[in-house]
Design a protein that fits this description.
337 residues, alpha/beta, Alpha-Beta Plaits, TIM Barrel, 2 domains, four-stranded antiparallel β-sheet, 11 helices, 14 strands, 34% helix, 18% strand, elongated, binds phosphoenolpyruvate, binds manganese (II) ion
């Protein structure tokens, strides 16, 4: 149950709500910013009697939420959430495209890519510095040096940067450089990392784990929201299935399914979702047609020489073509690029 306090509620009023929640054996989580104070009360349904809260002083509204995820649900918030990252607004009219290499490899590779994707119309630059690789024998990323190169590319192009944080120990370093912090698929279930990220003042791009159900995906988002970070963008990046012709199966069903039950913006990563450069453009068109708020695409100046994920990276030319085709679909469904 979500308790929304009136703007003139005092600390005493808030304390009274929390005390009542605790008295009935529930857990109360206070979320407060300059514009609103809400208390998320969770516990056994039968103990949660709406009137017992609504009659307390300066309680403005009591919203019963039946879903396991509360703050991520449309029951709690009906209007679409908009998340702003360096001038790009996710969840609005405009389709936001994030593009860049899987891994930051060197200055030339990154700057060439950054310029190319910017010219083609991308809004943000992606690039992995700390890489969660399947094999310990493959390129693990440049670490902090990679972040420095991303900052250089931001300076050169004005594009905000998106990069992954794999571990709490690197969080402060990544925070210094990133405009949007990515939680990778493998870390979607890392609740300790999510709790830390819930306290940061920067937006989070949360990628779906390749085996996560819709509920599990939104429960991970709930970790971020319940800790006080309401700038959360979801990302569908393909799930495991029995097919052998693609790396993953891009689950576009989840786009309208999530839109129905959650107010959070959701984008699609057709690179990891397919693992094949020839499927990226068609699946990007499909993602936008299905209602996605944006895309995240891997682009490399020379994919055959990429240190990671070359087979699912577009050349700058192919990326230009993607933007052209996505624009046409976006217009057809009443959106802009
Ligand atoms: C990535 O986007 O760099 C990445 C590693 O993707 P995922 O976490 O979806 O595998
Ligand atoms: Mn990759």
């Amino acid at each position: 149950m979500i308790i929304v306090m009136a703007v003139n509620a005092t600390d005493e009023d808030i304390k009274q709500v929390i005390t009542h929640a605790e008295e009935i054996g529930c857990q109360a989580n206070l979320l407060r910013d300059s514009s609103r104070t809400i208390i998320n009360v969770v516990g056994e349904e039968r103990n949660l009697v709406r009137e017992q809260f609504s009659l307390l002083p300066h309680v403005e509204n009591v919203i019963p939420v039946l879903k396991p995820y509360k703050l991520a649900s449309r029951e709690f918030k009906q209007n679409d959430t908009k998340v702003e990252v360096k001038g790009a607004t996710f969840g609005g009219q405009k389709i936001i495209v994030i593009a860049g290499p899987c891994s930051v490899e060197n200055e030339e590779q990154l700057l060439l890519t950054a310029q190319a994707v910017k010219t083609a119309g991308a809004s943000l630059l992606r690039g992995g510095a700390f890489k969660p690789r399947t094999s310990p024998y493959t390129f693990q990323g440049l670490g902090k040096d990679g972040l420095k190169l991303l900052a250089k590319a931001r300076e050169a192009t004005g594009l905000g940067i998106v990069t992954e944080v794999i571990d709490i120990s690197e969080l402060d370093t990544v925070l210094e450089y990133a405009d949007l912090l990515q939680v990778g698929s493998r870390n979607m279930y890392n609740t300790k990392l999510l709790r830390e990220l819930s306290k940061v003042k920067k937006p989070i791009l949360l990628k779906r784990n390749f085996s996560a159900t819709l509920n599990e995906f939104l429960m991970s988002a709930e970790y971020l929201l319940s800790g006080g970070n309401d700038q959360v963008i979801l990302c569908e990046r393909g799930i495991r299935s029995f097919v052998e012709y693609s790396r993953n199966t891009l689950d576009l069903n989840i786009i309208p399914a999530i839109k129905k039950v959650s107010h959070l913006p959701i984008i699609v990563d057709p690179s990891h979702g397919t693992g094949r450069n020839d499927l990226i453009i068609p699946m990007s068109r499909a993602a936008i047609a299905a209602g996605a708020d944006g895309l995240m695409v891997e682009v490399h100046p020379n994919p055959s020489e990429a240190l990671s994920d070359g087979e699912q990276s577009l050349t700058p030319d192919a990326f230009r073509q993607l933007m052209k085709e996505v624009k046409a679909v976006a217009q057809a469904v009443g959106r802009d690029v």
